[in-house]
């Protein structure tokens, strides 16, 4: 693991690769969390996170489900929605002049329901959103809305 200053250098100089979890229930609602951290602080966003060095996609997917949801989902049941770019003018540390660039692999999966989770480091609230409502909401991030715009 990198210390904060070393990771800030990575963010400053390279794109990060991540997975976003586009989770829908049988009613077509989408699971979103309100972010506590930068970038995209205070916006509603799909769960997800960075892929670690030498981590297989399937392992990263399952780790992120465990960390963000405390719920197991199978990578083999998910489908790739597409590859997206997320560009932010800020960074996790709030350091001036350093932007963040993500290359995001968005995976979609439908579940019966996910039990309520203990909110940890990334989110201070979590809820199921109707797609029409999230597309209209000002506090749902544009990068999340992009998954539902055809």
What keyword list fits this structure?
150 residues; alpha+beta; four-stranded mixed beta sheet; three-stranded antiparallel beta sheet; globular
Map the helices and strands.
Elements: H1 4-13, E1 16-25, E2 30-35, E3 44-45, E4 48-50, H2 57-69, E5 79-88, E6 100-111, E7 123-129, H3 131-136, H4 142-145
Parallel strand pairs: 1-6
Antiparallel strand pairs: 1-4, 2-3, 2-7, 5-6
Describe the protein's architecture and organization:
With 150 residues, the chain is α+β, with helices and mostly antiparallel strands. It contains four helices and seven strands. It has helices spanning 4-13, 57-69, 131-136, 142-145; strands at residues 16-25, 30-35, 44-45, 48-50, 79-88, 100-111, 123-129. The protein has a four-stranded mixed beta sheet, with helices on one face. The chain has a three-stranded antiparallel beta sheet with strand order 3-2-7. Strand 2 (30-35) and strand 3 (44-45) form a beta hairpin. The chain is globular. The protein starts with a helix and ends in a 5-residue tail after the last helix.
């Amino acid at each position: 693991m990198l210390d904060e200053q070393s990771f800030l250098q990575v963010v400053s100089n390279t794109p990060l690769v991540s997975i976003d979890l586009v989770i829908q229930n049988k009613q077509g609602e989408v699971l979103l969390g309100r972010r506590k951290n930068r970038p995209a602080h205070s916006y509603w966003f799909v769960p997800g996170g960075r892929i670690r060095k030498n981590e297989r996609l399937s392992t990263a997917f399952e780790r992120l489900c465990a960390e963000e949801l405390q719920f197991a989902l199978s990578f083999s049941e998910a489908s790739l929605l597409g590859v997206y770019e997320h560009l932010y003018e800020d960074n996790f540390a709030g350091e001036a002049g350093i932007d963040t660039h993500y290359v995001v692999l968005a995976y979609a999966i439908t579940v019966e329901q996910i039990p309520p989770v203990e909110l940890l480091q990334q989110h201070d609230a979590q809820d199921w959103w109707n797609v029409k409502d999230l597309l209209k909401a000002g506090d749902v991030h544009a990068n999340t809305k992009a998954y539902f715009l055809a």
